[in-house]
Specification:
Layout: E1 2-9, H1 16-26, E2 36-43, E3 49-56, H2 59-65, H3 68-78, E4 83-88, E5 91-94, E6 99-102
Antiparallel strand pairs: 1-3, 1-4, 2-3, 5-6
Length: 104
C-alpha cells in the first residue's frame, strides 16, 4: 500500500465551513476509483493550505490519478498546483473495522 499527501497553498485563507462545501463538491469524483482505499480531505488550522491524504493499494493505482488533467482540475478549483508526497504504507490500523491491514 502507499499513502500520497497532495497539498496546495490557497490564494487566500478559507474557513472550515467553506472548505467542507468545496470538498463535498469534489468528493463524488473520488468514489469508485480503482485502487483507492480511502481519501481524507484536510485544511490547515490557519486556512492557508488544503489537500488530500490518499491510501492506495499500489503506486501504479496512485499514478493513474495524478495526471496532468487531475493537476489542472486541482489548479482550477483551488488556484495552485498540488505537491505530491509518496509514502510506503506497510501497516494500517483501522479502528472502524477493527482490523490491522498489511500487504506482503
Amino acid at each position: 500500500m502507499i499513502t500520497v499527501i497532495a497539498e496546495f497553498k490557497l490564494p487566500r485563507p478559507i474557513s472550515n465551513n467553506a472548505a467542507r462545501e468545496i470538498f463535498l463538491s469534489t468528493a463524488p469524483k473520488y468514489q469508485d476509483i480503482p485502487g483507492l482505499i480511502r481519501k481524507y480531505y484536510f485544511l490547515t488550522p490557519d486556512g492557508n493550505k488544503a489537500g488530500g491524504i490518499y491510501l492506495w493499494q499500489s503506486r501504479e493505482d496512485a499514478d493513474s490519478l495524478y495526471t496532468d488533467d487531475w493537476k489542472s482540475f486541482v489548479h482550477s478549483k483551488y488556484g495552485s498546483e498540488p505537491s505530491l508526497t509518496y509514502l510506503d504504507t506497510p501497516v494500517v490500523v483501522d479502528n472502524v473495522s477493527n482490523e490491522i491491514i498489511s500487504e506482503p
